[in-house]
Specification:
The protein is an alpha/beta fold and 282 residues long. Strands 2-3-1-4-5 form a 5-stranded parallel beta sheet, with helices on both faces. It is built from 15 helices and 5 strands. It folds into 2 domains: 2-70, lambda repressor-like DNA-binding domains (434 Repressor (Amino-terminal Domain), Orthogonal Bundle), CATH 1.10.260.40; 88-277, P-loop containing nucleotide triphosphate hydrolases (Rossmann fold), CATH 3.40.50.300. Helix 2 (23-30) crosses helix 4 and helix 10 (140-148) packs across helix 11 (152-178). 30% of the residues are buried. The protein has helices at residues 2-18, 23-30, 34-41, 49-58, 63-67, 76-86, 89-99, 104-108, 122-133, 140-148, 152-178, 194-203, 213-222, 235-250, 264-277; strands at 110-115, 137-139, 181-185, 205-210, 255-258. The N and C termini lie far apart (57 Å). It is globular, with a radius of gyration of 20 Å.
Amino acid sequence: MSSMIARVGERVRKARERKGIPRRVLSERSGVSPRYLAQLEAGEGNISIGLLQRVAVALDHRIEWLTGEEDPWNSEALRVADLFRTASSDTQQAVMRILTPEPAESMRANRICLVGLRGAGKSTLGKLAGQALNLPFVELNSEIEANSGMPVDEVMALYGQEGYRKLEAQAINRIIATHDALVLAVAGGIVAEPETYTFLLAHFHTIWIMTSADEHMNRVRAQGDERPMAGNPEAMEQLRSILTSREALYGKAQARLDTSGQSVQNSVSQLLNLIQEQHFLD
């Protein structure tokens, strides 16, 4: 058992260092304390399967890669995944065209998805864009709540992060099966689930709605939610860390719209122009 714990700890440390993720950021993304992560990487932590799964997800790896006896760093699939992750957007799209049996445009149909961190304006812009384009607007969390019969907070409390991610993936599948044309807004953390996010990118025209860390925080607080700051003087620093750690993931979207310093109406106009320029509805 001790040899396995040491092996898992070494692989977690190597994966984190290869991706350039500080331990503090990995802690924020996985929900596992920095102290626990330090013990794990040192081969001293007796981590539960549930917590290890969170760490694996935050590192964009399968849990088997951390626990298996075979050295994952010699895995051909892992090397290909690393090359794909660091490739340019054009190269990634070219690879997806080769590996995808159905043309990308056909798979995406007229479905548009807005990704980005909370407070960027996805819900507001998505609803207004849907009205302007005469398309239904759907918030993924609302779809999850409707099908689970409970608020997202209760879903998380009852099923945990892993359970929520499963419901999230199921909701996306339902939306694809029932809508060829819509505007969808998803939660900011969906990019932390590699399989779901890759599936989303393949079946939706994706747009990264982005803004500055200050505006993210101000908009959330303007909605009456003081949780980001309550008893947490380092909230802004943590927000910037999350933005930095997810930048490459959000950057996989086909297009991006910066709403910093923009009025809602200007941002909606820019979004509609972007959709037209990118031929997302052609």
